[in-house]
Amino acid sequence: METIRVLHTNDLHSHFEHFPKIKRYLHQAQNDKTVDQVLTFDAGDFMDRSHPLSDATEGQANIQLMNEFNYDAITIGNNEGISNSHQVLEKLFDHADFPVVLANLREEDESMPAWCSQSKILTTKKGTRIALIGLTAAYPMTYGPNHWHIKMLKNTMDDLLPKIEGQYDALIMLTHIGLRMDRWLAKTYSQIDLIVGGHSHDLIPNGEKVNNTWITQTGKWGNYVGDIHIEVDDEHHFKKIVPTTVPTASMPAEKNDEKIIQAYLDKGREILESEKVAHLPAKFADDKDIAIEASLDAISDYAGVDLAMLSSGLFITPFKSGILTKYDLQKALPHPMHVVRTTLKGIDLWRLVMEIEKNRHYLDKFPLQGMSFRGKIFGQVYYKGIKVDNRHRIVYVNGKEIDPEKEYKIATLDHYVLIPFFPTLSIVGDNEFLFPQFLREVVGDYLAKTYPVDKK
Description:
alpha/beta; Purple Acid Phosphatase, chain A, domain 2; six-stranded mixed beta sheet; 23 strands
């Protein structure tokens, strides 16, 4: 008989305000003498570049803090895999004290990335062999342009499971694929004993059992920590699994917590404020419309097209006149979004514009979450190069009525392809995702070129 305690987190998203409490809870649990073994895992999206410190250090601050959590293994989420450039991800784990398991990501030459392994076998003090397999959400449209080859889940599992057959007594999956796909895994692969999941931000307070597999997930942002009790029989098989979740709000605070949390923000701000981007003229002072117009110019220039669209809700704050720093840009545009160059026939561009105009009033105050959005509401759509006569339903492109048969290229965002309000983009758009820079980097580079800082 053996008892194992599994601690787990997912979708922390750089919510460092919870880290002091989580760290103390994990350390106390990791010293639990009432069980034979304590294991600690994370299921991805631990970093989010909307936090100044994550952005300023390209995630290295996250790695340093996670080292203090004493993880036994983690997998990555889309925020690590897509919001970072290929180069940044290659170096992200250089100083990690924990292994990364990730079975469905490859370099472009099909080799395994040097910073991860498909699986790992952990052997407990009492000899139970636990296989760990990591999976992340398979997004070919965005991993491909970032010079990664993402593998589909079924192909990955069907290839890997026979290779490790007989090498383990129990199988734990670390997944960043969402609850719906976790349920599919549980139904499809009876070998799986436990899924430590993430991505869909579902809180499953006491786990969910699908066939013989337990699925766990702790919501988002470190609001909860997962804590699972496992009983292992004498043949080293998991006999009983009891998942629980512990609200971080219920964990005791200490007097220095707020000081530590503020220090994370201050350090990130200090680094970003030291990097000057542009010297903006007086017209930018607290004028969000001017910021949007400049950003439309930026993304159209980056995509090499003369049409563009952006929504006002992306702009959390306007830009300011005078010196604009990376911190100012990070505050204004915290979203890890990428520019997309979309090619549409004229009739389809007309339809896209009609979708936007139809939904305009509804989206103006629409509260939006997920899909890389870090704001509050969607807001109004602004165009570059497009005018609309709503009364007669006529669309003009660069001053001329749209040609139904002509092809047009427009700079959009991956966000607009993902949201359900403009289906034309995802259904008939030829969408080219542009990497590695994301939105605020594109805007920052354009402003730096247009309004350079006086080096004197």
